[in-house]
Design goal:
Blueprint (H helix, E strand, L loop, with lengths): L3 H11 L1 H18 L19 H7 L1
Length: 60
């Protein structure tokens, strides 16, 4: 039986493509908006995927 940590790491490895797509979309949004990261005061995460640690790390 896998530990929760091992399962989480496996899950994150399975969603690497999606994480890269999200990261690319954020980069494009920032570029098009002309905003700099220091100008962002808050990010609201919603939905089940917003609780995935790798996604949270991506937004930090």
């Amino acid at each position: 039986m896998q530990t929760a940590t091992a399962e989480a790491k496996r899950f994150e490895s399975l969603i690497q493509r999606e994480l890269r797509l999200v990261e690319s979309a954020i980069d494009e949004l920032m570029l098009k908006s002309g905003l700099k990261t220091e100008q962002i005061q808050a990010v609201l995460r919603t939905g089940g995927s917003s609780e995935i640690p790798a996604f949270i790390d991506l937004l930090s």
